[in-house]
Q: What sequence folds into this?
């Protein structure tokens, strides 16, 4: 198959996948309780059980009922999610939010993991590239000074036979 | 018995201190070659024997505490606070680790067991074992000092001795709690052994990589204990805490997960050192970090640094642990700086797309996951320090940050084994990745078709999206692993004329380590599928009068009674629920709520009906004080049983990997000289 044909084939495949995905996504059904459920999983129960509000399971829990009532009232008032979470933090304290906000110092909580991961990933890639470039330069230098075809063939055989990694590891 | 126990602990401390001191002097004399009055070898042997005797002394102390629990010796404060007369016998054993003092004694005892085995098998490599034994003695001195002076388990009651004790925490009165903590502790404590070997090998500039071969079994067994301990904890949380989940990203759970992640990274990257002489510094630091994280976990659990739903034994021993961690870190850094020339790699990576780099990226992702969890666990403390107020870092944070990293790790699990060592070609990638890619994209299409939709009502649904990606990745990884099995078994089948199943058995037996590893990966994939099922959890809560019904998924629950019961240990009330499916009665469930008499604390006993597709999970939340009717909460949790099945596969895979291979696989599969040598190796790691 020629290169343009292969490209055309790939584009057609991607188009088919995108179409299939669009059709499937459009099959969604409505869920009226999902917002309440979503929000009560972004809040903590204030009874001291250290559980997410939506998962607090104490009968007669002193905190859950009031928080559920406040949440229902806030949703009914037409407030946005952010407004609801802010009002809860104002009423119950910052620890009522199940995760840090994305404002001020709290933002560091979200950024740091990705920043550290990205930096480590980039550093590793650069290091491996440096090693591989250094190795190929060394190989070139060695190759220009002494070329022994028999030795190269032997080396290639060894490389092929040990390349499977069949002795331990995976 | 309290006096006997206290003296046993003091003797154990003295013996451990002698082991450390004599061992250090002997090894110093051997290293420098200085003349001495006593032969350093004999001195080192007395140190080893002191270590063995120390184990006997700690065993005596542990026996004394268990004896005191069983004889209801409430003159000992620890027994008074963690046991009572009516406590069933198995839970009396659990009392040993239900409190701070007891669990530290358990730690010291388990370390004593590991040390005992290590010292008995010292002939494998006398000098290396002497180093490792001395380092273990150093760690043992710390724990024995803590149980002797900071948290003594045999402290006596002041004043009148009560007739009965306060009882065991109700949360701990569950069968798994008899085995979960010892398993977890065996894992935690066990990492001291590879740590001791790594530090010892570095101190003595151990030639070659033999120490890794020696410690491999220790590390894998330790990793297995920690894995089983974590999953038993998950199952306990699922069955006891009654919120319908098994992992709440609680600081105590995180504390056990972090060393598991670094330990897993070590198990992978250590293969690079063994096979290629690479990543030596990395490996040393991985095992140092793992050991430090086990200490940090204990510090978090015991010192009350962070609030937790199940930190059962908090006190003020944090300073002891902080100082000890500082000392350990200082020793590690000092030794590393002194001996870093010994850790120079024999080779470097040659290509970004190779088996070696997949190990490196696997390590990177595991460490990133560990950092995320550590960061999330400690951020409330940092926030309080910087802003003056604490924040909560709960499941929404981890679900957003850790889950994508986990999925990337799953991707690497599939990709790694498909890449050849050193370097690869586009042709090889295309050939090896066709089947996994088909499985992956096929699963995406099927998932979308059956309704796993990342968008609902025009809103992006993170849970569904991650579930879909996890299912698809799992299918891809499974296809990759199974194709590896089939390829290898196919070669053996052709060479030996045996059927595919026998060939597969032979394949595994000939390289247990490699294929045991693959089986573990299959287990991990099954666990991931089970975890992804959580995106589709459903729940219903209702107050049920007699013959009222509650519908959830395919089931309808009908309340046919609610009643009470009592025994010397607790009073209970429970509901009787008939469960119907398709109009036919299937079975009855009886969720329960207990109130333990000694502690006057309530406890939920969840009723669970498990099938491969889902769990029907029913909680009796108590009765409405106004109507007296039971409040029932029912959950339908898809695929939970896959998690537990995955763990069984992981355990099986680890056992396979621990079994020595039948014959060297390369020798067994060597092509006869008379036949044409194939252009590519027969047992391919991808190319």
A:
């Amino acid at each position: 198959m020629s290169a343009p044909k292969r490209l055309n084939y790939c584009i057609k495949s991607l188009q088919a996948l995108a179409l299939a995905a669009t059709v499937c996504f459009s099959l969604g059904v409505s869920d009226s309780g999902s917002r309440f459920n979503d929000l009560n999983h972004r809040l903590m129960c204030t009874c001291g059980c250290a559980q997410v509000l939506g998962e607090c399971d104490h009968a007669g829990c002193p905190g859950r009922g009031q928080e559920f009532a406040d949440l229902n009232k806030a949703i009914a008032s037409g407030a946005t999610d952010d407004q609801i979470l802010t009002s809860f933090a104002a009423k119950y304290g910052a620890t009522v939010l199940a995760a840090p906000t994305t404002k001020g110092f709290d933002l560091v909580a979200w950024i740091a993991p990705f920043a550290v991961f990205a930096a480590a990933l980039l550093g590793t890639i650069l290091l491996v590239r440096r090693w591989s470039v250094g190795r190929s330069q060394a190989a070139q230098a060695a190759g220009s000074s002494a070329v022994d075809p028999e030795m190269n063939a032997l080396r290639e055989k060894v490389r092929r036979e040990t390349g499977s990694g069949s002795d331990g590891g995976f | 018995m309290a006096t006997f126990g206290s003296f046993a602990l003091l003797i154990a401390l003295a013996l451990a201190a002698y082991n450390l001191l004599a061992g250090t002097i002997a090894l110093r004399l051997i290293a420098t070659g200085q003349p001495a009055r006593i032969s350093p070898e004999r001195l080192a042997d007395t140190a080893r024997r002191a270590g063995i005797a120390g184990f006997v002394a700690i065993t005596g102390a542990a026996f004394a505490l268990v004896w005191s629990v069983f004889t209801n010796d409430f003159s000992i404060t620890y027994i008074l606070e963690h046991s009572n007369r009516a406590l069933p016998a198995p839970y009396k054993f659990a009392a040993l680790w239900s409190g701070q003092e007891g669990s530290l004694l358990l730690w010291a005892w388990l370390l004593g067991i590991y040390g005992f085995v290590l010292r008995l098998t010292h002939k494998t490599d006398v000098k290396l074992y002497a180093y490792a034994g001395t380092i273990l003695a150093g760690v043992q001195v710390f724990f024995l000092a803590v149980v002797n002076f900071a948290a003594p388990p045999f402290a006596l009651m002041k004043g009148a001795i009560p007739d009965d004790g306060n009882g065991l925490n109700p949360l701990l009165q569950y069968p798994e709690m008899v085995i979960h903590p010892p398993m977890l502790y065996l894992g935690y404590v066990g990492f001291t052994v590879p740590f001791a070997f790594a530090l010892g090998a570095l101190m003595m500039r151990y030639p070659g990589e033999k120490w890794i071969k020696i410690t491999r079994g220790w590390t894998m067994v330790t990793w297995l204990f920690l894995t089983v301990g974590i999953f038993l904890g998950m199952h306990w949380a699922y069955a006891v805490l009654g919120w319908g989940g098994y992992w709440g990203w609680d600081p105590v759970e995180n504390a056990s997960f972090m060393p598991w992640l670094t330990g897993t990274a070590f198990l992978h990257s250590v293969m690079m050192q063994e096979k290629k002489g690479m990543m030596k510094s990395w490996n040393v630091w991985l095992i140092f970090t793992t050991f430090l994280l086990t200490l940090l976990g204990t510090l978090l659990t015991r010192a009350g640094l962070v609030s937790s739903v199940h930190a059962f034994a908090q006190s003020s021993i944090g300073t002891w642990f902080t100082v000890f961690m500082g000392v350990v870190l200082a020793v590690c850094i000092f030794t590393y700086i002194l001996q870093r020339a010994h850790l120079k790699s024999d080779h470097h990576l040659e290509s970004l797309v190779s088996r070696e780099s997949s190990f490196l990226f696997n390590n990177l992702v595991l460490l990133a996951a560990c950092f995320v969890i550590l960061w999330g666990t400690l951020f409330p403390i940092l926030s309080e320090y910087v802003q003056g107020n604490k924040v909560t870092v709960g499941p929404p944070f981890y679900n957003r940050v850790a889950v994508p990293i986990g999925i990337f790790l799953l991707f690497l699990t599939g990709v790694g084994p498909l890449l050849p060592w050193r370097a690869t070609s586009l042709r090889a990638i295309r050939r090896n990745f066709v089947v996994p890619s088909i499985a992956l994209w096929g699963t995406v299409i099927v998932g979308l078709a059956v309704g796993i939709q990342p968008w609902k009502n025009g809103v992006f649904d993170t849970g569904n999206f991650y579930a879909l990606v996890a299912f698809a990745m799992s299918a891809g990884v499974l296809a990759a692993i199974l194709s590896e099995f089939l390829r290898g078994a196919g070669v053996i089948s052709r060479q030996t004329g045996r059927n595919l199943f026998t060939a597969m058995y032979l394949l595994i037996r000939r390289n247990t380590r490699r294929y045991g590893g693959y089986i573990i990966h299959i287990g991990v994939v099954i666990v991931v599928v089970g975890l992804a099922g959580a995106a589709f959890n459903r729940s219903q809560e209702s107050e049920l009068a007699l013959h009222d019904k509650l519908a959830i998924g395919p089931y309808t629950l009908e309340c046919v009674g609610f009643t009470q019961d009592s025994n010397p240990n607790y009073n209970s009330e429970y509901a009787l629920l008939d469960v119907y499916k398709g109009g036919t009665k299937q079975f009855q469930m009886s969720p329960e709520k207990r109130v333990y008499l000694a502690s006057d604390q309530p406890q939920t006993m969840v009723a669970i009906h498990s099938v491969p597709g889902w769990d029907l999970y029913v909680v009796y939340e108590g009765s409405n004080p106004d109507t007296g009717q039971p409040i029932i909460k029912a959950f339908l949790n898809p695929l939970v049983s896959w998690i537990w099945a995955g763990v069984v596969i992981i355990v099986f895979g680890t056992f396979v990997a621990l079994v020595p291979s039948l014959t060297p696989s390369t020798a067994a599969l060597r092509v006869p000289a008379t036949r044409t040598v194939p252009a590519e190796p027969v047992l391919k790691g991808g190319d």
Observations:
- Helices of chain A lie at 3-25, 34-40, 64-76, 81-92, 106-145, 149-162.
- Residues 20-32, 163-170 of chain A have pLDDT under 50 and may be disordered.
- The two ends of chain A are 34 Å apart (CA to CA).
